[in-house]
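Entry for the shared binder. Reason: the reviewer on the internal report wants the predicted structure included alongside the sequence.
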Amino acid sequence: MKNTEIANSREFKQLQYCSRSENFIKRYLLQEQYYRKTRNNYLDLCMDSKCGDIEITAYENFEDIKEELQSTNTDSPQNRLKYTTDASNSYAGNEQIRKGVCIYLTSDNVSDENQISWKDE
């Protein structure tokens, strides 16, 4: 958490909109690292489509949840994070991948058209 690269990352900044708790942010960043490792393993095994399926589903969940929250006037960074990371993703093999991909999609490395924002910038 004291690493400047981590503290300046978009993932970290987006998580700060959801909570200032260092433990909260650390847990989600660890899940993102788990997903990144899994993603790299899939790419090494030429399973690009598996990554795509996981990421597309996570992004579509985010969009659906964002629209629902906006329609009920309950849209907030905390609700976006909670409901998106809790949403079903049958392509994600476990909870760490399901949650980690959502944090991964907040990074600057993701194209704008598939990038998640807990708080719009």
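Summary line for the report: The chain has a mean pLDDT of 95.
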